[in-house]
Amino acid sequence: MKVCFLGTGSIGQRHILNLKEIIKDPLIVHAVRSSTGPLPVSLEKIISRTFFSCAEADSDYDAVFITNPTFLHYQTLLEMQHKGKFFFVEKPLFASVQHDLGSISTAVKNVYVACPIRYTSVICFAKSIADKEKILSARAICSSYLPEWRKNTDYRNSYSAHKEQGGGVMLDIIHEWDYLSDLLGFPQNVSCFHGKCSDLEIDSDDFAVYIAEYANCTLELHLDYYGRYPQRYLEIITNEHLWKFDILNQAVFCDGSAIITYNEDANQKYLSEMHTFLNIMRNNQLNPNTLEHAYHVMKLALCE
Q1: 84 pairs with which residues across the strands?
Q2: What superfamily in CATH does domain 2-114 come from?
């Protein structure tokens, strides 16, 4: 199997190591980098060739992984679209809905967009409940403190801090709309309030609050960069129970009582996702997050 990675930051490195763990056949890994800085020794042993532009890359990859900053995704996909059979694009898809899908070759149908939260046991449990019980309303929150996201990194220099790089909670925390669209589908109507209200030294939005209307239920969603006490959970009121799915603490509650707690390694959801991508490639598994679906989620997150 021959693959190329566009971007070897933390998420790209994670995917390379996971791919190496899963693939038992010979694996050839190339990388297009923007930096000449050293990579971890574990990566240097895997990556056999390094380029510094898409034009230098080969044109016969089984898979192309676009794991560079969000604002580069669209141009990278355009430049690499004829160089691979399958494409894995890190979330969010693009930095702007102004990018036209029509300019991407119709031959590029095999695009999978990352959605790892779907693969957590907690959200898989929520999916089983959504399939069995009638949902009347749902509430979800993702709240955490941006300066604590990335160890040994100045948050002010991260893409999250800069709107033009795809930063801001509406796109940066698109995981919520991704798993919610999988659970509930797309709403009929959605309203959003967003902006910056904290003292964080950023030019991107640090909060967004959505109200969404479905045919038979409603949804409230809160996202922020300033919560000192991290929270990430989904509450569902059905015609039978009140369910709470605590993603951070890997616990499921029913009517206020804990019914199950998981102890998954943080990397497990990424391994499960990589298995899905490989099954799409090798076994014609249905793609659960296509280019078109991810673009629709992005428009929803931006209220476009």
Answers
A1: 61
A2: NAD(P)-binding Rossmann-like Domain (3.40.50.720)
Please state, in angstroms and as integers, the Cα–Cα distance from residue 36 to each residue in 9, 39, 180, following that order: 12, 9, 39
CB 52 within 8 A of CB 33: yes
Give me the DSSP letters along 124-164.
HHHHHHHHHS-EEEEEEEEEEEGGGTSTTS-GGGSGGG-GG
Assess if CATH 2.40.30.40 describes domain 121-263.
Answer: no
224 beta partners:
143, 207
Q: What angle is formed at CA 92 by the lines to CA 90 and CA 95, rounded to 5 degrees?
A: 120
Each residue of 15-72: pLDDT tens digit? Answer: 999 999 999 889 999 999 988 888 899 999 999 999 999 999 999 999 999 999 889 9
DSSP letters spanning the chain? -EEEEE--SHHHHHHHHHHHHH--S--EEEEE-S--SPPPHHHHTTEEEEESSGGGS-S-EEEEEE-S-GGGHHHHHHHHTTSEEEEEEPSSS-S-TTS-GGGS-TT---EEE--GGGGSHHHHHHHHHHHHS-EEEEEEEEEEEGGGTSTTS-GGGSGGG-GGGT-SHHHHTTHHHHHHHHHH---SEEEEEEE--S--S-SS--EEEEEEE-SS-EEEEEEESEEEEEEEEEEEEESS-EEEEETTTTEEEETTEEEEE----TTHHHHHHHHHHHHHHHH-PPPSS-HHHHHHHHHHHTT-
What are the extents of the domains in the chain? 2-114, 121-263
Q: What is the pLDDT of residue 225?
A: 97
Residue that is written with structure tokens 């950023």 in the block: 202
> Tokens at residue 67, please?
């794991």
Phi-psi region of 303 (alpha: psi -120 to 50; beta: other; left: phi over 0): left
Residue 103 makes CB contacts below 8 A (sequence gap 6+) with: 78
Mean pLDDT of 179-207: 96
